[in-house]
Write the structure tokens for this entry.
Amino acid sequence: MAQILGGVLTSHVPAIGGAIARGLQQDPYWRPFFDGFAPVHRWLNSQKPDVAVVFYNDHGLNFFLDQMPTFAVGAAADYRNDDEGWGLPVMKDMPGAQTLAWHIIEHLVAEEFDITMCQDMLIDHAVTVPFQLAWPGVEQWPVKLVPIAINTVQHPLPSPKRCLALGRAVAKAISSWESDETVMIMGTGGLSHQLDGERAGFLNPDYDRFCLDQIGPNPDALTGHSAVDIIELAGSQGIEILNWIAARGAMGATVHEVSRNYHIPISNTAAATMLLETDAAICVAEAA
Amino acid sequence: MNATAVAMRTGSTKTRAKRRIDGTSLFDGDAASKGYALNAMCFSFNDAANRAAFVADEDAYCAHFGLSPLQRAAVADRNVLAMIEAGGNIYYLAKLAGIFGLSVQDVGAQQTGMGVAAFKQMLLDQAEG
């Protein structure tokens, strides 16, 4: 059966992509954020996952308000990035893990998650920025992708509890996939930030710390708040923590924290990166 | 009308009191309905040719998408709070802001009534110790 190695939770601020395009990783403004990826690079280099299942939110590249799925699972052979309108370079295509994607879809619907299935799906900076951070400068992405988009735009939003349950169902699906491949999970976005309204610029380090402390050992603690509670606590776009919550569920019951980084501000955001691994990852490392 | 009918009518038509968060609008069904034309126009700006068409003839482009008078005025004034009031969602409005070369700090400064330098400092000041 396929093994879940753990994964990476990280902010996906578009300006990070801009900084990469301009080579500013060592610039004093950017360095405190980029330095948080050194342990991620070491871990990926030793674990070499075959597939990344990525929980993210689309920002109006693929999905518009005409048709807005709560949960959308990609099952494409490959994924294109495209112009988002404000100047980020378009990234190269990503190969899809199509067999696993259909397996996850079958399992989720059997578990009564009424998801949307997508065979043609543009992926935006919420996938490409974390990939660039994880594998800087690569010619070809070294993993195949299963993208899972969560609606964080159009209310009513899914509850944190439902997002965690979705993630846990994805973990069961991966664990029942008859394959020798190894799988990492990514959850992107956050932490606290708000772009719109008179409260623009709002950050909440106390709530962010709560999330960082609890998401590994006790992810259910994050489901004590409703989605709207989280908007009050973390800002309108701080609700992207839903992607982290689902991703944490998809890592399985027990994870160990390998590294974390938290830095204010990156653009308008409290930026964070956390690397979690499962016991399967430790076994791979010891066998290597 | 008897009491039962009133109660049923109340139960079927009264919406729950909306949650209020200071300085924050929740993009609910009412906002999404009201803002559809404006957000649809902004969504079109993923395409460079559409951005160029907007710049070439802003009036015609806005008319093509059927913006309401309030939406058209908010766009003409480059007033982000007014766009949100007219149903705009920031993920889509960001694409319009991009045409004007505005960063999210510029947009934040405008909405909070701060200068851009003061807005950036406010972000920095929220860093822990």
Notes: The mean pLDDT of chain A is 96. Residues 104 and 171 of chain A are 9 Å apart (CA to CA). Strands of chain A lie at 3-10, 51-56, 71-74, 78-79, 94-95, 116-118, 144-150, 182-188, 256-266, 269-277. The interface with chain B takes residues 15, 59-61, 64-66, 82-87, 153-156, 194-203, 205, 228, 231-232, 235-237, 263-265, 267-268, 270 of chain A (CB under 8 Å).
